[in-house]
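User: Reviewer 2 asked us to show a designed sequence for the structure in our supplementary figure. I'm pasting the structure tokens here. Could you produce the per-position amino acids so we can include them in the response letter?
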């Protein structure tokens, strides 16, 4: 007869019950804090980190501390995120928020589409990323044209706009911030900020 995993576990549990806990402790766990106290079921459990196909080093996206993360991937899906001991910043630690960042990736509540509420609208509607990008570009161009300041009243060059401001967040990495600063400065904006700084 082929034993199913459930039958196998049941047999092992019965066998284990026959050995008194005291005797199990004598097998190398005198205080009963390790394997002597372990149930058969927990013995069967395997950490997700052990079944991953690959591990990718990354940075926590939440705040400016920039703790190092190890992202465990299986079948091209993120299955676990843990602190990276090699990070000189966090040395393997993550705060509760960073520890839960696997949920940021896999939560069914994660918003992956662009939501838009038009002027006067009383509800959100979904639009394509292309449409949203075009709408933002149109607004930036219009605001720049309408607020452009070529020179002061005395004729000194200004070449700026006070109609466009940029406020970045902690999820932006250094490269993105570099490009954002370069782009908005080239467009003539002077108010370019990021809340993430240490
Ligand atoms: S783990 Fe916590 S402290 Fe570290 S970067 Fe993420 S949110 Fe910030």
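Assistant: Here is a per-position design you can include in the supplement:
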């Amino acid at each position: 007869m082929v034993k199913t995993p459930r039958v196998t576990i049941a047999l092992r549990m019965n066998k284990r019950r026959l050995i008194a806990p005291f005797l199990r402790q004598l097998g190398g766990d005198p205080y009963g804090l390790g394997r002597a106290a372990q149930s058969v079921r927990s013995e069967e459990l395997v950490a997700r980190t052990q079944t991953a196909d690959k591990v990718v080093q990354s940075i926590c996206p939440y705040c400016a501390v920039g703790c190092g993360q190890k992202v465990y991937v299986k079948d091209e899906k993120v299955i676990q995120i843990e602190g990276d001991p090699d990070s000189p910043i966090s040395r393997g630690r993550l705060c509760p928020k960073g520890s839960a960042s696997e949920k940021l990736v896999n939560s069914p509540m994660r918003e992956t589409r662009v939501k838009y509420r038009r002027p006067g609208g009383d509800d959100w509607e979904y639009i394509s990323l292309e449409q949203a990008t075009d709408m933002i570009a149109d607004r930036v161009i219009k605001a720049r044209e309408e607020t452009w300041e070529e020179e002061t009243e005395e004729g000194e060059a200004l070449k700026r706009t006070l109609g466009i401001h940029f406020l970045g967040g902690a999820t932006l990495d250094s490269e993105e911030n570099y490009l954002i600063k370069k782009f908005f400065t080239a467009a003539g904006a002077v108010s370019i900020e990021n809340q993430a700084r240490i």
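For the response letter, you might also mention the following. The beta strands are 54-59, 68-74, 77-83, 114-116, 125-127, 148-151, 157-168, 189-194. The first strand starts at residue 54 and ends at 59.
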